[in-house]
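User: Could you check the structure of this?
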Amino acid sequence: MSKDEHISRRGLLKGDWIKRIRERGAELISKEDVPMFQLKKPVGQSRRSGGFVHRPPHAVPESEFMVGCTKCDACLQACPPHAIFRTPESEGILAGLPIIDASSQPCLMCDDMPCVPVCEAGVLRMDAPVAMGIAKIDSVTCLAFQGTVCTVCVEHCPVEGAITMEAGRPIINSESCTGCGVCLYVCPAPSPTGSAIALESIF
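Assistant: Sure, the predicted structure tokens are below.
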């Protein structure tokens, strides 16, 4: 340690060594090292092993998916709205697996589901459930529940009958909802999580 880096005993007790480590870390990490896509973990979302799990439509059960996916990126390339991302390296065993972050770009439920037939590993297949999760509305932050006229989620939902208006309030139909995340993405309600709608696991 050089003279400039020397920390006195008093400084050591005051925690100056923590500040020094942070300063050195900031110098070593450049903007180019920061990944372009950060996996978000909104409150209320499905989590397994600490990671946010929102797989593409028609995914096999998670245990099969993690073992079978070859991380070939075919589904990413086939997705027209570019809604499928690679899980970042910081997510450990989940790194590289395809995932959807609806707050950045939701699944638009394409009619032909182009992400499914390109999956040679078979972890996306048409005989697996199309639903990725289910939307949940926070009545505390939802504008319609607070007396404001708002039908944005119903108007933009790509699945017929998944969200309907009853007495001026949006209602999620659990039988039709696929958890695509479009409603979460378009929701204008101010909320600590960024939306009055969250996605939850159906498993």
